[in-house]
Amino acid sequence: MLPVLTEAAQHFVGAVTFSALASEPVASSLWQASDPIPHTRLGQRADAVLVCPATADLLARYAHGLADDLLAATLLATRAPVVVAPAMHAEMLEHPAVVANLALLASRGVGVVPAGTGRLAGGDVGSGRLAEPADIVAAVAGLFHPRDLAGKRVVVSAGGTREPLDPVRFLGNRSSGRQGHALAEAAAARGAAVTLVTSSSLPPPPGIDAVVRFTTTAELEAALLETVVDADVVVMAAAVADFRPRTVAAEKLHRADGLVSLELEPTPDILAALAGKRRAGQLFVGFAAETAAAVARAQEKLAAKGVDLVVANDVTEEGAGFEVETNHVVIVSRAGVVAEVGPAPKRVVADAVLDVISAHLAT
Ligand code: CTP
Is the N or the C terminus of the chain less surrounded, counting Cβ atoms within 10 Å? Predict the structure, then answer.
């Protein structure tokens, strides 16, 4: 990272602080740098340029080709992709001059991370607030991703189901939703329109089109029946209960009432039902959380559920499965084992699964 701190920005952040946080020397002037031609060197060496925050003044100078400070000159001298994250007061953001400058920059291929709404400097509230850091990082990261899922609709289910026993208790499982959320995030970064159907308490990742919440298997089934209709790809990463209480007690069950026996009934196999009604061209991906013989069981599930791919993991293995940041999976198709990934961060596993999905869509 090559940080540039303009003179105006130094009213807000000192150069020493910025340099220490970036662990890099900070450049701020066309004239003081040790490099004799910093305005071209910085732009030439960059893989991407992020202007964060982008003021109304900078947007105007950039849109009109001025090169009157190191940042503006660097922006003119780079061929790397540029992303701007505007931040200013609502009146300025909505001014026709700023609107026109942003439109002009966007028409030239500059990425614009839309400003959010909320508290602004000086206690004002409104539009113009700098976008959330995760959205800005995602916009820059998106420049380096293949856009192989552009134009595709992807539905991802994530998290575990909870089946109530009474108003305060439920039968659940240990799924955190991390792998499903990573898949949704990765699919969005690769250009897909993503609907995330989730029970996870994790925040929805950036770039998602729609988020649908569920708690029970019945709610998950209803949400999927609605969203899967126009999907190209369905990734069923949710950990679904296989059994649920036949009846739910209207009142809390009390210890004093003695030993309670639970009568359970099987839940419908949502994935098998959806895959059984598939439209031509739809791709279905299941998960198999196993405690032994993961590949063999994955192959059985692939056939039994009529899906195209099964992502299998042994949840007893350290660094894989529930409640951890990493996973170790084997991806199985009708032809056999397609790939083994990990142990690796769940986002890396997500991209590997999407590589296989993308290859399947292309055939
Ligand atoms: N699944 C589903 N509906 C269910 C149970 C599972 O849609 N009622 C989906 C899961 O989301 C997963 C795949 O089916 O994508 C495999 O889930 P898993 O629990 O491993 O398999 P089961 O079919 O439940 O078989 P078993 O628990 O006996 O291994």
Answer: C
